[in-house]
Amino acid sequence: MGIKDCMNILEITGLFTGFYTEQLLNLFESHNYIISKYNRGSIIHFESEKCNYWSIILKGEISIQKIDEKGNVLTVAEFGIGDNIGGNLLFSKYPYYPMSAIAKSDAEVLHIAKHLVLRLCKTSEDFLVKFLACISDKTTVLTNKIKSISMKSIRESVIEFLNYEYYIQKNKKIKLGMTKKELSERLGIQRTSLSRELSKMKKDGFIDYDAHSITICNFDIIRKP
Asked: Tens-digit pLDDT profile for the chain (225 aa)?
């Protein structure tokens, strides 16, 4: 995949609307970018790795994960096609990834060098404003996610997940679409702790569950819209 093939995805981001296609291609002629492919499960950025690029996802999904000294995994966020990472670190005095970026599926990523990001900002004020807004919003989202995870009990985390999925799927039987291990990582808790809490909630009559779904039995846990 060349930079010309990326134009439609760059349009999806909404960040490059201030450029004409030819103008954008001319800016990328400097070749201050890399397009990389990653297999599912590959580490795209290690925790504590220096951030040298602003990365835009061209294909697949990327998980932002924190792994503690015991090997427990916390999935802080997941990003898909058109999303970007690293912008909030690129110009920092301490430009090191605080968490790892993992390919959740086979992925392709456009890595744009710092010098080219600066050129884009200098060339278009519209891009500059949108880029600043984007990295500010992403920082806020990640901060709020970490804060909410650290303050919630395991049951509260499970109930919040069920509320979200109930209104998305519009069904009392929530199809998981992920393993219990992946769910525990998404909620930021250990798999064994999740299993214990699900068992308690089943015993208390709130839910029933199997390997692929969780069924809501007591709608007192569902918030009214």
From this structure: 678 888 889 988 899 998 988 999 899 987 789 999 999 999 999 988 999 999 999 999 999 887 766 666 777 888 999 999 999 899 999 899 988 999 999 999 999 999 999 999 999 999 999 999 988 887 777 776 666 666 578 888 899 889 989 988 989 999 998 888 888 887 878 888 899 999 999 999 999 999 899 999 999 888 876
- On whether the CB atoms of residues 18 and 127 are closer than 8 A, the answer is yes
Residue extents of the structural domains in the chain: 3-151, 154-221
Dihedral (Cα; 10, 15, 18, 19), 10-degree rounding: -30
Positive or negative: CA dihedral 12, 177, 135, 36: negative
The residue assigned the tokens 């301490």 is 94
For helices 191-203 and 180-187, give the axis angle rounded to 10 degrees. 100
Amino acid letter, residue 15 = L
Domain over 154-221 is classified CATH 3.30.2420.10: no
Phi and psi, residue 56, nearest 5°: -115, 130
Angstrom distance (rounded) from CA 38 to CA 104: 10
**Residue 200 · residue 208 · CB < 8 Å:** no
The model scores a pTM over 0.70: no
CATH of domain 3-151: 2.60.120.10
Task: Identify residue 113 by its one-letter amino acid code.
Answer: A
